[in-house]
Structure formats: C-alpha cells, structure tokens
C-alpha cells in the first residue's frame, strides 16, 4: 500500500540549512573564497537560500551560481534526452572553495557529473558538497561534507523535495510504493 | 516535452513542440560555445560518419565542429574519394560504415529521400544534412533559432523568402518550420522559380518584390542554385539583380527593424548588395554561429535512449 511520510517540514528545512551554513563557516576559515553552486534543478533554490543565510551570518554577500550537469551524465543513451536548464556561474571558480549544493544525494552520479562539468569552468581550490537529504545507496565513492538529514531508504522508495515551489509549503516527503 | 525521435530526416514530420525543444536545447549548447572549454562529453565513445555525397563546405564544417564539441569520434567521407565512384550503391556504402560500428550517419546527398532510405536500412541514427531540393532540416532549425533569439518570438512575424525557391531545400524546410511556429511566410522571386504550387504549403506567393518586402520582419535571401537548374529559368543574372536583388533602394523601404538572413554562400552584388550583407541588420554570420549550437542540440536529442526522461534525484 503506497504511503507518504513527511520527513522534514518547512521549519525543519530552515533549521537544517542554517546548521549547514554554520558548518560551512566553521570548516572554511577564509570565507571570502567560498562560493555556492546549486545543481539544476533541485539544488538551485537551496543554494540561493543557503547564500542568503551565509550572507547574514558573515555580513557580506556570498556568490551563488547554478550548474546543469546533464551534458556530463554517463547514462545519456539509456534515457530520453534530458531538458537542459541554464548554467550561470557569474564568477571565476579558479582558486575558490566551491560548495556544490543539491537536494538529494543518492547514487552519487549527479555529483560525479557536476565535478566534471565544474572543471570546464576552471580549477577550484576545493570542492565541497552540501545536500539537504542523504538517502544512501551510493554507486560511487562520494560523500557529502554537509548533510541536512540522513534518511535511510530502500531502493524502491522515493524522496521528494519541495522548496520554493509556488503554492506549496517547503517539505521533504518519503514515498513508499 | 520528451524527445522520442531516433533520426532527423525532415521538418515536415516534426511538431511545433519538437521544433521548440530543439531550439530550447540549442540555447543551452550556445552557452557552452561561450565557455573557455567549449567541449562536453555527451557523445563520448560514439562514432559519427559524415557522408557527404554532394559537395558542402559550411554545413560539413559545422557538423564536424559540433561533433567534436560533443566529444564524438568522426569519420569524414566524401563522394570524390569513395567507392561510390567505383559503382558501390549508397546502401552498401552505408552498411559498410555501419559494420564499423558507426552510431550516427550525417548524410548530404543530391537525391531527395536518401536520408529516409538510409534510416530504413540502418540501425544508426541518421541526420539529413540536405537531400536534393527536398529538405535541409538543420538549416531551418538554425534559422528559426536565430529569428527567435533576435525577435524574441517566431509566432506572428512576417517572413519573406526571396530568391530561387523552386530548387531550394532551405526554402522548403524553412517554410515548414516557420509556418509550424506561427510565422506568416511570403515567397517571392521570378515566376519560373516561385510557382504558385507553394501556396499548398501554407504560404503566400507574390512576384512583386517591393510588396513582398514592405511588411517583412525577416527577409530571407536565397542564392540562385545554378547547379540544380537544368535550363535557364530567367534571362540573365543582371536582370535578376535588377528585378529581385536586395539593393539599397529596396532596403530603404523595408521596416526599420527588418533583419536580413541568408544561408550562404552569398553572391555579393547578385541577390544582395555588398554593403547590406555587412550591415548591422544582417544576421548572416550569427546564423553560422547558431548552426553549431543547433547541430549539437540535434545530436544530443536523438542520442537519447528509450528510458524515462526524468530520473530520481541524486
């Protein structure tokens, strides 16, 4: 019987992002070099929110960009061609500490593609990874530096993140088939 | 929408949604061309054969560069240096190329329907790079992309195609693409080269050049295709230039924001005045730049498999 469970509500998401923001400042002493890049599509609104929180903690704006990784995926001939969303990186990534931001960490293949795609824009000093939900089941040796919520799942389950969607409250829902 | 086609053979069979999907995807690939590293690994490990049985320079170079920027491996095949000269059939040539595990065949051929034929006998993806006087789909897609980029829309625009329509695959593909996207297309040129039968494709035919240019938002010029004309279709080049060439006097009477397009190669002083070809309202070189992005988008889309478009995040 299909079942949906709320695993984070709007307040829970806000708290998780605030905690991640503080963890980013603790990890990186030279915050002037930190930039955020959200992965299209789910990571982009999260990166912007995280940028706002970081900006108010530091009293200085933190640059935020967006990255579409579809041209760098390893499964392009196995699925219908994906819709490509804008990549906008309005700053130089060379020498920067880039925090990649995504909504859900699952197989790790998106992050692998994102690191490849990012290399086309320059050579960051460090790449770190922030995700709202880590649901496990990695196919690749990839680990997040900052996690909003660790949520053990079965492969059949689906994690849905709603964030900044018109007409919907921010929430993370776990769907069981 | 989800792209499901395995080949790009013509514009006639595409829907407006499919055309829009190509244009949207091309926008993303145009942005790739503006990066320091202009290459993405989307077609890594794929082999593309450029089978140009009819001579071509700009289309072949554009396809080649598009393939390279998608990280494909490329084989170039021209009729002059091939066994087609030794009597091999097109089917056998293509089957041989497929036996080398070619994943894509980009074909330019003087016979209309050659790409459609190959798509039926091969498993590889087939892209029509121009077949006789039938269609040149990637040219029409890059033209529509250029119009949409500069005017913000195609729907409702007046597009005048002026020149040798009868022998032009560019004209046919453009008529299909532009009318599907909602443009009002007017064809103009000598009556021998612009027969009224084109009205059946949903466009207007006139032989009065000033009337054709008066309301045009886009003026699309075509070259006289001497190589396809079996007999003389008009008295002389000089007379064509006088009666139908885009000269300064005619250009001065067009809408001030009307833009000029031409698929190339241009014949300066014949269908277009030398200075007009280089003016700020000429999109001729933008068309070339956009052609690269559109061809990358087409190959990216038809490379897609049968799986779902949406994948689980992560």
Features:
heterodimer, A: 177 residues, alpha/beta, Rossmann fold, 5-stranded parallel sheet, 3 helices, 25% helix, globular, B: 314 residues, 4-stranded parallel sheet, 11 helices
Short description:
The complex is a heterodimer of chains A (177) and B (314). Chain A is α/β, with parallel strands linked by helices.
Describe the structure.
The complex is a heterodimer of chains A (177) and B (314). Chain A contains three helices and eight strands. By secondary structure, chain A is α/β, with parallel strands linked by helices. Chain A has one domain (3-73, 84-176): Rossmann fold (3-Layer(aba) Sandwich), CATH 3.40.50.2020. In chain A, helix 1 (10-27) packs across helix 2. Chain B is an alpha/beta fold and 314 residues long. Chain B contains eleven helices and nine strands. In chain B, strands 7-6-5-8-9 form a five-stranded parallel sheet. In chain B, helix 4 links the parallel strand 3 and strand 4. Chain B is globular. The model of chain B has no long low-confidence stretch (mean pLDDT 93). The A-B interface holds A 42, 68, 71-72, 75-87, 102-110, 116-117, 119-122, 135, 158-159, 161 and B 2-4, 24-25, 28, 31-32, 35-37, 39-42, 46, 300-309, 311-314.
Write the layout of secondary structure elements.
The complex is a heterodimer of chains A (177) and B (314).
Chain A: E1 3-8, H1 10-27, E2 34-39, H2 43-58, E3 64-67, E4 97-105, H3 109-119, E5 126-134, E6 146-150, E7 158-162, E8 171-176
Parallel strand pairs in A: 2-3, 2-4, 4-5, 5-6
Antiparallel strand pairs in A: 1-8, 7-8
Chain B: H1 16-32, E1 47-52, H2 58-69, E2 73-78, H3 90-99, E3 104-109, H4 114-121, E4 125-131, H5 137-151, E5 158-162, H6 169-180, E6 184-188, E7 204-206, H7 209-214, E8 218-221, H8 237-244, H9 248-252, E9 259-261, H10 274-277, H11 284-302
Parallel strand pairs in B: 1-2, 1-3, 3-4, 5-6, 5-8, 6-7, 8-9
């Amino acid at each position: 019987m299909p079942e949906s469970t709320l695993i984070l509500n709007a307040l829970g998401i806000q708290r998780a992002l605030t905690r991640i923001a503080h963890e980013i400042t603790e990890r990186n002493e030279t915050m002037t070099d930190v930039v955020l890049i959200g992965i299209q599509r789910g990571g982009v609104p999260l990166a912007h929110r995280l940028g706002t929180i970081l900006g108010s903690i530091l009293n200085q704006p933190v640059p935020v960009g967006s990255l579409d990784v579809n041209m760098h995926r390893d499964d392009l001939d196995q699925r219908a061609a994906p819709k490509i969303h804008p990549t906008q990186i309005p700053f130089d990534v060379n020498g920067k500490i880039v925090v990649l931001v995504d909504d859900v960490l699952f197989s790790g293949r998106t992050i692998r593609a994102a690191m490849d795609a990012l290399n086309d824009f320059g050579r960051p000093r460090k790449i770190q990874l922030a995700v709202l939900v880590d649901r496990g089941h990695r196919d690749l040796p990839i680990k997040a530096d900052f996690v909003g919520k660790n949520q053990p799942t079965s492969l059949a389950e689906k994690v849905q993140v709603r964030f900044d969607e018109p007409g919907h409250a921010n929430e993370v829902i776990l769907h069981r088939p | 929408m989800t792209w499901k086609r395995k080949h790009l053979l013509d514009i006639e069979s595409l829907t407006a949604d499919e055309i829009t999907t190509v244009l949207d995807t091309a926008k993303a690939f145009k942005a790739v061309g503006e990066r320091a590293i202009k290459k993405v690994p989307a077609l890594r490990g794929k082999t593309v054969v450029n089978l140009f049985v009819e001579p071509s320079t700009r289309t072949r170079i554009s396809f080649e560069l598009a393939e390279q920027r998608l990280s494909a491996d490329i084989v170039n095949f021209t009729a002059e240096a091939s066994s087609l000269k030794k009597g091999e059939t097109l089917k056998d040539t293509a089957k041989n190329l497929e036996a080398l595990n070619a994943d894509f065949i980009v074909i330019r051929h003087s016979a209309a329907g050659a790409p459609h034929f190959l798509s039926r006998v091969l498993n590889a993806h087939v892209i029509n790079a121009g077949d006789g006087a039938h269609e040149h789909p990637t040219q029409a897609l890059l033209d529509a992309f250029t119009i949409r980029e500069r005017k913000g829309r195609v729907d409702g625009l007046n597009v005048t195609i002026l020149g040798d329509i009868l022998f032009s695959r560019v004209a046919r593909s453009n008529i299909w693409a532009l009318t599907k996207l909602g443009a009002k297309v007017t064809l103009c040129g000598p009556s021998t080269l612009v027969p009224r039968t084109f009205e059946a494709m949903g466009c207007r035919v006139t032989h009065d050049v000033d009337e054709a240019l008066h309301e045009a938002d886009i003026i699309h010029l075509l070259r006289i295709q001497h190589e396809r004309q079996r007999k003389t279709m008009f008295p002389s080049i000089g007379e064509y230039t006088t009666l139908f060439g885009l000269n300064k006097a005619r250009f001065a009477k067009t809408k001030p924001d009307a833009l000029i397009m031409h698929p190339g190669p241009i014949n300066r002083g014949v269908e277009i005045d030398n200075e007009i070809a280089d003016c700020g309202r000429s999109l001729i070189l933008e068309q070339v730049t956009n052609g690269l992005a559109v061809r990358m988008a087409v190959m990216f889309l038809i490379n897609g498999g049968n799986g779902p478009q949406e994948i689980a995040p992560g």
